[in-house]
Amino acid sequence: MRYIPNTPDDRSAMLRDIGVSSLEELLEPIPAELRLNRPLAIADGKSEWDVRREVMELAALNQSAMNRACFMGAGSYDHYVPAAVDALGMRSEYVTAYTPYQPEVAQGTLQVIYEFQSMVCELYAMPAANASLYDCGTALSEAISMARAHTKRTRVVWSEAVNPAYRRVAETNNVALGIKFDCARCPDGSQSHEALSMLLGDDVAALVVQYPNFFGVVDDVRKLVARAHSNGTLVIFVTDPMAMGVLTPPGKLGADIVVGEGQPLGNYMSFGGPYLGLFAASNELIRLMPGRIVGVTKDVDGRRGYVLTLQTREQHIRRDKATSNICTNQGLLAARATFYMSMMGPTGLREIGEASARRTMYMMDKLRSVAGFSLPHRGPHFREFLMTVPGSAEEFVIYMAARGILAGVPLTRMGLSDDRGILVALTEKRSVAEIDAYVEHAATWLQGGAK
Amino acid sequence: MHIPDGYLYTKEHEWVKLDGGVAAVGITEFAQGELGDVVFVQLPEVGTKTLQGDSFGTIEAVKAVADLYSPITGEVVEVNTALADAPEVINREPYTGGWIVKIRPSKFDSEAANLLTPAAYKDLTSA
Asked: What is the pTM (predicted TM-score) of this model?
């Protein structure tokens, strides 16, 4: 970006043009208590370089996946991002045209989105996908209002093993539609057929299952899906795209709608966002699908062209009758996911999935040999598991952070009440040495007398 | 502009034709011409109750979506399922093969007064 000087003369000229006498007057509409009423805590008379160094030193105090061994997950994962994804993702064609306003002119952007949709369809084995939503939580919330519109029913069934953050977003967004949510407990960490079946009935719009679930457990949900379908209930899968290299895709398990968090596909954790909502559905539901969809067509000379299609359902045309209030997509992050998937290919995704799962198994085995920690959940895990510590999960996490390890996400931070539970996540980036160091420090913490 | 006799019309450009106690409903030739290529019709379910003047579905063309308003009060007894695969029939044969729903009217005689005769509809569309 060009450096644009901003002299006192420039400032007073601009203020005069706006019609105010001072910067203070310009900022008056902002309540005083929200404004910084003191100078920045940086000494006067410092050079640009001095200021930059001071800020960088402060920034270096942050503990992030860039400078620590990150075992945190719960919906956001530290996968490797190839340099080529950054290089392509920084191209100005993608960065500036975050959403195509004169869409048919932006053929390159539309083609990338078309490829993105095609890859999401292939990943999930679903016939239709949109151009992305804001994140997995909003995608789930849209999936639920879509199920309501299709079935004309207003009850939704899910379990505690669906990410609590996604559930909160979906509940908040669907309050006004009068949707009621029934949540099944899952003490053993699985989405139990028995507990969920009891809540199903012919007034249920959607059954939501997470696969692998919030605790990393891969549940066999086929019987549940059949049970839901026997009542005319749609089944929404919340599915981790990184698991698709090693698991049967939801489209082959009877999913009607699939949503997922696309952050792990070539996007950074970025302290929590922006993220990328994946959204796919059956052909029967395509006209209720929220957001935008790019299609391919031919012009009068028979040349291939990409177009925004099914726009007629969109908020800017249908206003109050639109099927959703989503009227944009995460174009840049979707482009990065497209680059990532095209570089990895099916083989690469399988290798990353297998490596993540193997590291998970290795770490679970090691932890089982340390008396004091318990791993309460059985069954196959993918990339994440629940660990219960004999003491405060928060204190354990602080202890480990002081040793350069981001140990996991305490369940209480996700709004769950178990203050001893920690979700531990592994990606292909976690080395055996890092895992071994984790287990050693954890054992030392125990000997030091966990409170 | 083709405006056949024996049909009644609405200001929203639907037509209704009573035949043996059941009324077929569709959109007029004028309406299909204004919309352009019809790509989708959202049909109500059989058994749906309709009210004169209320929306019972939508019709979607390439660049616009329009509501379908029921010309009469009654109950939907049949829907034109052929439109799911061939919505373009509405462009080709708006008054015959392109019918959309069949409604058993509950008070046709009193409501007919609110509908337009072919002559009145001709005035409306040529204005």
From this structure: 0.87
